[in-house]
């Protein structure tokens, strides 16, 4: 590569010197590289679906006959293809709809399938755990209902009922205590036997 050094006596307006990457400072090289990458990424800023259902990428705006809902990406906007393609698929004729669906269907990799399978297994395990919890609750409620009904039958039978008091002695329920106990058992039946 030819190299030319600038001298004080070089006239202004002459051709610039050749660029030598070996003598360039690292910061300048990084700046040039970044600027070139930015200009490359900015070249295709528009995306839309044409009348045949194909995706079009361009650095220029789409023709005026392209409806606004067919434009997938504008300069400075992130891509939002799925809702637009879905809307186009719903409103298009059957041939165009199948083409649009093929365009919008992403290729699923093996890793994505594995992640989806793991997610599905985790959801099934979560549902099984919730179902087991509901089953335990329903069984406990049925048991409490059965005990309350049996206590109600015993209370309504008219047989003398005794209970153990705080001192550990047996005491027979009088009519007032029997009425209180009957109300408590009735409340338990209503609470557990719904």
Shape: elongated
Strand content: 5-15%
Provide mean pLDDT, rounded: 76
Radius of gyration: 41 Å
Number of helices: 5
Total beta strands: 5
SSE order and pairing:
Elements: H1 26-41, E1 46-49, E2 55-58, E3 71-73, H2 81-91, H3 94-104, H4 110-156, E4 162-164, E5 170-172, H5 175-192
Antiparallel strand pairs: 1-2, 1-3, 4-5
Helix pairs in contact: 2-3, 4-5
Outline of this structure?
With 194 residues, this protein is mainly α.
Q: What does the model show?
A:
This protein is mainly α and about 190 residues long. Among the domains are: about 45-105, no CATH class; about 130-190, no CATH class. The chain is about 55% helix and about 10% strand. It has a three-stranded antiparallel β-sheet with strand order 2-1-3, covered by helices on one side. Strands 4-5 form a two-stranded antiparallel ribbon. Helix 2 (about 80-90) packs antiparallel against helix 3 (about 95-105). The protein is elongated, with a radius of gyration of 41 Å. The protein starts with about 25 loop residues before the first helix and ends with a helix.
Labels describing this entry:
two-stranded antiparallel ribbon, elongated, mainly alpha, 53% helix, three-stranded antiparallel β-sheet, 194 residues
């Amino acid at each position: 590569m030819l190299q030319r050094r600038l001298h004080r006596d070089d006239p202004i307006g002459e051709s610039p010197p050749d660029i030598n990457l070996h003598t360039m400072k690292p910061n300048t090289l990084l700046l040039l590289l970044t600027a070139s990458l930015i200009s490359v990424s900015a070249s295709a800023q528009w995306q839309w679906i044409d009348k045949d259902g194909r995706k079009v990428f361009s650095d220029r705006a789409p023709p005026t006959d392209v409806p606004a809902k067919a434009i997938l990406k504008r300069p400075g906007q992130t891509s939002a293809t799925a809702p637009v393609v879905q809307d186009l698929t719903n409103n298009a004729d059957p041939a165009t709809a199948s083409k649009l669906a093929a365009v919008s269907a992403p290729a699923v990799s093996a890793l994505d399938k594995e992640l989806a399978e793991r997610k599905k297994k985790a959801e099934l395990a979560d549902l099984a755990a919730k179902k087991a919890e509901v089953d335990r609750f329903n069984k406990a409620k049925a048991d409490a209902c059965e005990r309350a009904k049996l206590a109600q039958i015993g209370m309504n039978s008219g047989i003398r009922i005794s209970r153990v008091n705080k001192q550990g002695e047996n005491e027979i329920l009088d009519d007032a205590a029997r009425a209180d106990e009957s109300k408590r058992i009735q409340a338990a039946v209503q609470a557990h036997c719904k």
